[in-house]
Automatic annotation (TrEMBL):
Protein name per its UniProtKB record: Outer membrane lipoprotein Blc
GO molecular function, one term: lipid binding
Organism (species): Massilia glaciei
Lineage: Bacteria, Pseudomonadati, Pseudomonadota, Betaproteobacteria, Burkholderiales
Role according to the record: Involved in the storage or transport of lipids necessary for membrane maintenance under stressful conditions. Displays a binding preference for lysophospholipids.
Cross-referenced PROSITE patterns: LIPOCALIN, PROKAR_LIPOPROTEIN
Self-association and partners: Homodimer.
Topology with respect to the bilayer: Lipid-anchor
Keywords: Cell outer membrane, Lipid-binding, Lipoprotein, Membrane, Palmitate, Signal
Lipidation sites (N-palmitoyl cysteine): C15
Domain Lipocalin/cytosolic fatty-acid binding: 30-169
Length: 173
């Protein structure tokens, strides 16, 4: 039983670990990160498959964490899908390294490794390994030069950017 508990603890800890050579941003300001972000591109995962108009909205929780509301439109079903979660800083609150949960006690890493520190207009985010990548923007579209620079950075760090899905942010009719 003791070995099982240790294995379970190691597995949970691995979910909030950072990928190799990915460094969270420093001088992170939570207040500037709050609000709505638009998903410009992502690596595919079942929980977002087929979604367009994907957004993430962050607000403060009473316990000091962040409330996370992810939303996307599933055209195949003609309906919106929402997922509500919570996030907490793994280390210090001025480092862009959080753990996020949408499923009870299970957390996954949310590592902000590039950020427009001046205006908080874009963010490049990884999960616990390099199969998770999100390019976020405060607007539904992103300046092509900035987008290309961020995708090139992710590719140089070992993400499979050839598999990125560029999210359709146009309103469905």
């Amino acid at each position: 039983m003791k070995k099982l508990i240790i294995l379970f603890a190691l597995l949970l800890g691995a979910c909030v670990s950072k990928p190799d050579n990915i460094t969270p941003v420093k001088n992170f300001e939570t207040a500037k990160y709050l609000g709505k972000w638009y998903e410009i591109a992502r690596l595919d995962h079942s929980f977002e498959r087929g979604l367009s108009q994907v957004t993430a909205e962050y607000s403060l929780r009473e316990d000091g964490g962040l409330k996370v509301l992810n939303r996307g439109y599933k055209a195949e079903d003609s309906k919106w899908k929402d997922a509500s979660g919570k996030a907490y800083f793994v280390d210090q609150a001025d480092v862009g390294y959080l753990k996020v949960s949408f499923f009870g006690p299970f957390y996954g890493a949310y590592v902000i490794f590039d950020l427009d520190h001046e205006n908080y207009s874009y963010s490049l985010v990884s999960g616990p390994d390099k199969s998770y990548l999100w390019l976020l923007s405060r607007t539904p579209t992103m300046d092509p030069v900035t987008q290309q620079r961020l995708v090139a950075k992710a590719q140089a760090l070992g993400f499979e950017t050839s598999k990125l899905i560029f999210v359709d942010q146009r309103v469905q009719k």
